[in-house]
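Input record (one chain):
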Amino acid sequence: MAGTLNIISSSCSCCVKSLLIVIVLVVVSGSRSTSGQQLSTEYYSKTCPKVFSTVKSVVKAAVAKEKRMGASLLRLHFHDCFVQGCDGSILLDDTSSFTGEKTALPNNNSVRGFNVVDDIKSKVESVCPGVVSCADILAIAARDSVDILGGPKWDVKVGRRDSQSASLSAANSGVIPPPTSTLSNLINRFQARGLSAKDMVVLSGAHTIGQARCTVFRNRIYNETNIDTSFARTRQANCPRPSGSGDNNLAVLDVKTPTKFDNSYYKNLLNKKGLLHSDQILYNNGSTDSFIESYSKNPKAFANDFVTAMIKMGDISPLTGSNGQIRKNCRRAN
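The corresponding structure, as predicted from the sequence alone:
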């Protein structure tokens, strides 16, 4: 490249600048696919045909042991995709060269399921070593979790590769909307990732399973007015008002069917029984009210739209082709 540039005369400096700009653009655009166009449901059909059954066997055992794990695995995929794309970066432990995402504010003492991912990776490696990425394992495990807990099934697009680094600052930058979010912040954060307001509402329906810590819903149950009073009192019994007291006490996100993936989350919002501020704000005389009303009445529409949104989310900026790597251990780069 240096020899090529040296033969260009000084009078053509503008040409050199243009060439350099083109080179930079090619390098940057080539580092990540902006969408999942290079992903395919058949990606492992020849190289690892047993990958889906292998992943599901581990997820099924983990969820049978603890129903909450299904929600935890689903959330890992979401928190992975929103930071720097669906690249498995959330799984990386800290190293001497970077601090990873695990201790970021949205993740610390919150995201979980890393041991289950380790178990899945170990089983997959025993079947087809060096073939399946950790990023794809997260996507498959998320689908399996929804399926096992009674939700819809879909064919997962695969072919993602793993990042070799992670970023604490990126995870802390607000790309993952906090449970205190306003409606506009939720919409904006999802739109920044190519997801519509409708996608945001339907993906929020994942809160039909899982639990949350007292520290993230304390203000809602003591200080907000758009909440059912008996629901608030019930939650207060296990979440004391003083900060620092019972912070890690858990409550189910869906008071109606806490371990079943269904549309009860939306029915709860109609009755002002959303546990998080960011849940109830979706039904609070705002632009998303109609979605909540629709999904509360039509479980099939919710299931279909959830699948569509999950596939879109899984398409966020994957590493493909020769970019990234296939980690041998999901916790560290090769």
